[in-house]
Amino acid sequence: MADEAGRKRIVILGGGSGGLELASQLAGHAALDVALVDRELSHLWKPRLHEFAAGTVNSSLAEMSFYMLGQLRGFRFEQGTVSAIDHERREVVLAAILGEDGTVAARERRVPYDLCVVALGGVVPDFGTTGVKEFAVRLDTKADADRFRDRFIAAMIEARETGEPAEVVIVGSGATGTELAAHLRRSERGFFEQNKAERRRKLLGITILEAAPEIMPGAEPELRQQLIERLRQLDIKTVTDVNVSRIDADSVYSKSGERWSCDLAVWAAGLVGNPVLKDLGRFETDKRGRIVVDQTLRSSVDEAIYVMGDSASLTPPGADKPLPPTAQAASQQADYLTETLPLLARGEPVQPFRYSDKGRLISLGRAGAVGMIGFGRKDDFLIRGHFATAAYNALQRQHQWRVLGRLRGTVSIAADMISPTKGPALKLHGD
Ligand SMILES: Cc1cc2nc3c(=O)[nH]c(=O)nc-3n(C[C@H](O)[C@H](O)[C@H](O)COP(=O)(O)OP(=O)(O)OC[C@H]3O[C@@H](n4cnc5c(N)ncnc54)[C@H](O)[C@@H]3O)c2cc1C
User: Fold this and answer.
1) Beta strand 381-384 with 369-373: parallel, antiparallel or unpaired?
2) 197 C-alpha to center of ligand 1: Å?
3) How confident is the model at residue 420 (pLDDT cuts 50, 70, 90)?
4) Which CATH number is associated with domain 8-39+80-123+272-345?
5) Does domain 132-270+360-418 have CATH number 3.50.50.100?
6) Residues 20, 333: contact at Cβ < 8 Å?
7) In the predicted model, what is the mean pLDDT of residues 152-170?
8) What is d(CA 161, CA 165) in angstroms, rounded to the nearest whole number?
9) Beta 312-313 vs 360-363: how paired, if at all?
10) pLDDT tens-digit map of 217-260
11) Is 125's C-beta closer than 6 angstroms to any atom of ligand 1?
12) In the chain, what are the domain boundaries?
């Protein structure tokens, strides 16, 4: 099958870190008709979500319209919420759009494909913990970040008026939890009056709770040591061996009976596949709800469907667990599929995907960035200071180049660098 012009129809589900890079790089390919589907109207690069939440985001990449990007790069954008895949008819089903009164404003649609790529991301699970859904914020979407920021601003204003510091408790000491904590400390400055005495007042208490015996489980010891030191410098408390059992409107409770009072609770513990994957089609999923794929990213049950990023469960040869859910992996998979899908469309053989682990980097606001890099080798080394900050920014620069193309990407990066709001910016409104 193909479109009227004889081009193979490639439909990419999800325009996040991986899906948008793939759509942008594939578009313009003469033999392909590329369509991108997303439930949102604009792209937000998820690795910056915590900055959105803290109000410190400062980039032309903050939000980009999918329609604008589609025109720029040459793919078709279809806004809609993916609800199912019809394997037999090779069609993606998009749910009906309901109006404010609950009636159908736009009916259910079907998008035909020859090859389909699932890039619908993942979500933070609550592991059935009481009160997480009702009282804690999870950073999965821009709406979550907006909600957090509104509540954070209100709590900080109240703290300034009453002199009682606002308390934020973050459950989970992975990259999201620690980076968010550091950026919140940076935001605190925006609420001080401009005289020195005021600056000495503390308006914000931040506590990170971790279930494991040490923070950032899985991190290299040198990196962890650096993190501990920097969190201490930022006056961010960390408590380990805490098994959180319940959250309510003003407290977080542990199984062993401890209680931390808070104005805001953030749940940042773990990641599983997007819940929609469970009922999307007849896929094989792993215990984290991600679709199992082979070494070419092809789903184990349907040769016309490929899966990438946080939605995919890919265990490299010789490894005992699937690749971690990172933008780094999603981006490498986008590059791989950019090369591979045109070959598949022509019925030619393809090489397997090879992941190259470039290390991990943590950005801690004014305490700088730290990380371990090794360019895929075993002897990773610790980096910090300007070098680490530059390496951290490099992931975003690459994303801008891939999405916007070399010329526009370079202009966009230059605009970020000379922006008058560069530095300790506090952006209080997301829109
Ligand atoms: C705060 C934070 C910081 C991070 N920092 C880093 C970092 O420093 N380095 C790193 O490598 N990784 C980082 N990550 C992880 C990284 O963001 C993810 O691994 C990456 O975004 C996964 O890309 P993806 O394309 O699989 O999914 P996503 O980027 O999550 O995109 C999924 C897309 O699917 C769309 N979608 C979802 N459901 C539907 C539906 N039913 N219908 C239509 N569209 C839908 C969404 O709107 C979204 O556009 C961070 C994550 C967070 C939350």
Assistant:
1) antiparallel
2) 41
3) very low
4) 3.50.50.60
5) yes
6) no
7) 94
8) 10
9) unpaired
10) 888 888 899 889 999 999 999 999 999 999 999 999 999 999 99
11) no
12) 8-39+80-123+272-345, 132-270+360-418
